[in-house]
Write a structure and sequence with these properties.
This protein has 413 residues and is an alpha+beta fold. It is 37% helix and 21% strand. The chain has two domains: 16-171 and 227-316, BirA Bifunctional Protein, domain 2 (2-Layer Sandwich), CATH 3.30.930.10; 329-410, Rossmann fold. Helix 5 packs parallel to helix 9. It binds adenosine-5'-triphosphate (ATP) and magnesium ion.
């Protein structure tokens, strides 16, 4: 037997209604906030992610599914995230001079070669949004509000919004220096990856999962204590905007985000009850990404929300019940002729938009009734020789057992 690839999942018909329900709310909310859907390819030139995500990130260094294209002999990668492809697409399609802000969303699968565990898989699903063309703190707050709206509408209550500012090009150098000297003082205790990153991208060290690195990281200087006046002011405006919208948050200096391109606002929505992988949504501002991928100086802000983690949180809070749709009518038939007649009735009802079922396997009448009960049919109709002749049959309500006679030619529910 051939098994699925480790870290991937099959989503079976009992589970898809919940996925669709969640995705439906994501789409509805995104559209309420004026975001339009964008779809990009599932694979891209590897270079896009190396430049877009950053060559010092775990995603690029360890987690990408990269292969050589058969024909062109070039390196291709399955997308590990959604932002870089969207940025490429807007540049390539000449959309950077569209009226701003440009608001885009997507629901995609992403691929990362990580250690599979609860809330972490190798193919995972993500609801992502990007807003381009504005540096206004109200834009940051709007993007956060959209994520908040989705989680709230899903009925989630035990999720906390953590926000931070990691500053800009102006305040970064001084902070970087403080950070490097903090980590350099305990260099021997750092993991090899962090030792290597220390000179190149010290911010990365702040979210290393290695226990020793983490212990040093919690004592590290905080970005919020090193903001320039302009970043300070922007951060204050983001907080004031969230306050105005009634969106609760905590300021958390530990939030720095895993990808290289962020500046200023970064945020995560954290569900405490779902285990170690508790970040259901993470995002931030990335004002230099578009230009670093060859586009104009176009600021951006966005987030990625992991569907599996949202579902884990929903399960934890007991709000993950979505009913599988049940047929309104099951037509039971006795005999080959009745079976065909039943098919005709069911087809007419389906054309009217009613979910109806009939026997397709030639079961006995008793087995058909048992099956109708099992699939939760609201009504059953029994067709035999007699019913075929008179054109009338008994419609039975499964909940209370009441029956009424109906005319087969004019049956509606
Ligand atoms: P984490 O450190 O929690 O894995 P990240 O910083 O790597 O997060 P992002 O690249 O920001 O994650 O992705 C956005 C969201 O996508 C995450 O907050 C999470 O909900 C989800 N996500 C990321 N990686 C995975 C994965 N391997 N499996 C399932 N969901 C994931
Ligand atoms: Mg990760």
């Amino acid at each position: 037997m051939i098994r699925k690839i480790k870290g991937t999942m099959d989503i079976l018909p009992e589970q898809t209604p919940l996925f669709r329900y969640v995705e439906g709310i994501m789409r509805e909310e995104a559209e309420r906030y004026g975001f339009g859907e964008i779809r990009t390819p599932m694979f891209e030139n590897t270079e896009l992610f190396v430049r877009g995500v950053g060559d010092t990130t775990d995603v690029v260094q360890k987690e990408m599914y990269t292969f050589v294209d058969r024909e062109e002999d070039r390196s291709i990668s399955l997308r590990p995230e959604g932002t870089a492809p969207v940025v490429r697409a807007i540049i390539e399609n000449g959309r950077c001079s569209d009226p701003m802000p440009m608001k885009l969303y997507y629901i995609i699968s992403c691929f990362r070669h990580e250690k599979p565990q609860a809330g972490r898989s190798r193919e995972f699903f993500q609801f992502g949004t990007e807003m381009f063309g504005t540096e206004s703190p109200t834009a940051d707050a709007t993007v956060i509000a959209l994520a908040h709206a989705v989680l709230t509408r899903l009925g989630l209550k035990n999720i906390t919004l953590h926000i931070n500012s990691i500053g800009c090009k102006e305040c970064r150098p001084a902070y970087r220096e403080a950070l490097v000297s903090h980590f350099a003082a305990e260099q021997e205790r750092l993991c090899p990856t962090c030792r290597d990153r220390l000179g190149r991208n010290p911010l990365r060290l702040l979210d290393c999962k290695n226990p020793d690195c983490h212990e040093i990281a919690v004592r590290a200087p905080r970005t919020v204590d090193h903001l320039c006046p302009s970043c300070e002011e922007k951060f204050a405006a983001v907080k004031a905007s969230l306050d105005e919208m009634g969106i609760p948050y905590v300021v958390d200096p530990a939030i720095v985000r895993g990808l290289d391109y962020y500046n200023n606002t970064v945020f995560e929505f954290i569900a405490e009850g779902i285990g170690a992988q508790s970040t259901v949504c993470g995002g931030g501002r990335y004002d230099s990404l578009v230009s670093s991928l060859g586009g104009p100086a176009l600021p951006g802000i966005g987030f990625g929300m992991g569907l599996t983690r949202v579902l884990l949180a929903m399960k934890e809070e007991g709000v993950d019940t979505v009913s599988v749709s049940k047929p309104r009518l099951y037509v039971a038939a006795l005999g080959a002729q009745a079976q065909i007649k039943a098919l005709g009735i069911v087809e007419r009802l389906r054309r009217e938009g009613t979910y109806a079922e009939c026997d397709l396997v030639g079961r006995s009448l008793k087995a058909q009734m048992k099956y109708a009960d099992k699939i939760g049919a609201e009504y059953t109709l029994l067709l035999g020789d007699n019913e075929l002749q008179t054109g009338r049959a008994m419609l039975r309500c499964m909940a209370d057992g009441t029956q009424r006679e109906v005319e087969l030619a004019h049956l509606t529910l």
